[in-house]
Amino acid sequence: QPLRISYKPHPLEDRSDAWYTEMFRRLFRQTDKFATRYFGVHDLDAGEFFEPWAAGMTGEFITWAEQVAESDPNLGTGSWDDLLRDTMQRKWLVMGILMKIVRVKIFDVDLFGAGKEQAELLHGLSRAFVGREEGFGRQALRAETVRTIIGRNSVTENFYSSVTTLTAQISLLLKPLTDYLYGMQPRFGIPLPKIEDQYQALHNLVSTAAYLSLCIKLSPTIFTFNDVSPGTFYDETDHYSLENRLYLDSQEAVLTDHRLQLEIFHDRRAHLNAALDTLIKAGKRDTRAGIKADAALAAHETKVPTPVDRDYRAMCKIGVWPVVTRYKPGQDEDDE
Length: 336
Description:
Number of strands: 2
Structural class: mainly alpha
Largest sheet: 2 strands, antiparallel
Number of helices: 11
Helix content: 55-70%
Strand order of the largest sheet: 1-2
Distance between the termini: 41 Å
Radius of gyration: 28 Å
């Protein structure tokens, strides 16, 4: 049985932006550390043949993975196999899956760990506002209801049992990948992590996220979570690249392929020009062969490879962390 984390009762006043920012940073670091420590110590690109996807990955795992990642069409820079073979990509994939589950199973529910009657109360409150737009008045009413439910306690009545249940579900989801990796020796002589340590770390992560979700539900302000879906065009004003190596590898693959296509194009052009020049020198420009050679050259000129920046844009490959925004009443969008 994993150890529980105890939490202090909630203050009466709403928490500050700085407090929430620090809590989300801690959750990010905690998730990053978990994925690195338990899924980023094995090197499957050491010249041997590995097929991690064939190691009994469940349909549920694949479903979660497809929601946060997509393969790179450029050869050798990120196929679905590479997502699990490559140490860095595997780490980010696991981290993305974890956060997606946390988002859906914790942050998106009315109140994590609420009892049956309490959940029905909150559901009824939501149902009463069906057809009406989200607003601060509605959120304030929710927050007051949540504060009444929690009372002087720090967590909901089923908080710890719900944390235990979700931890077990996620652990079971990751078990095929864990078993596959832990059947091999980690790289550089790193000690093999203990399964019980992994389970405790996962339990702590779920507990931390669940407590943060309660704090958000107690706030009269509005929080939004916008996922960075795979295939989204990268926008440096809204997104942050966590792994530039993957982008640079993909970019180099595109540039290499473009250079190859240009070489092929120029070689073919030189061949067609030479053939046409030979016919011209022989006085056969207006013959059937000359007309055919001229048409072939003209047709080839329409196939010149387009510039890379016209056909390619940076896109998200693995959506690791959502964009979290807090809205307060009486503020302009610039002050969110």
